[in-house]
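Hey, resending since the last one bounced:
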Amino acid sequence: YGVDGIYLCMRSHSPWPKDGSGAREYGYNPPVIAEYQRRYGSDPRQARPGSLEELRFVKLQGEFLKQFLTEAHKRCQARGKLLSMNASWDAVDPATAARMYVPADDLCREHIVDELCILSGANADLTRWRVLGRNRVRLTTFTGMFSPQYEVGHAAWVQGLQQMLRNPTLDGTCFHEFGNVLYFHMWDDIRRVVAEWRRETRQEAARP
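The structure tokens again:
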């Protein structure tokens, strides 16, 4: 299809555990269990909720995800394609990871992905990963329109776009649930927000 790369998303519309503890309720595959038992001498399936043993299991899952992404990145590079991965603020810390743990620090430091998109907050400060990635990893955040109420969703989407354009720690933007933007034909909104941003940028540059 002539695509520039592959975008992998940690989110899913498949059913998740109601308490949001997917990072602790999936991933009990034989290789992961065997490695956990080799390292710690116990079965991760018997770990108590909130225990050190459970945290070790979450971190180990991150290692296996990192291995998968490393292999995927090599295949993308072999075909001249880019690899992108997203993560939320809670997902980058094994202690708070809900859906899954994404070892974002390693992904940037070792240039395992070409782009990292942080899902939470269009005005998020991504300086940490910019430093770790040494400007080799493209950093983005996202905005989307997925509220059941048009007025609420539209206002939040416009605000998110404005925040992303004014965020000096970003390399670009990512639109989530973009089909809604197409459905409501919001191209004029995009042009208006971008024009306002360009006017503000020119005015700031002209100040003594």
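The first strand starts at residue 5 and ends at 8.

Sorry for the duplicate.
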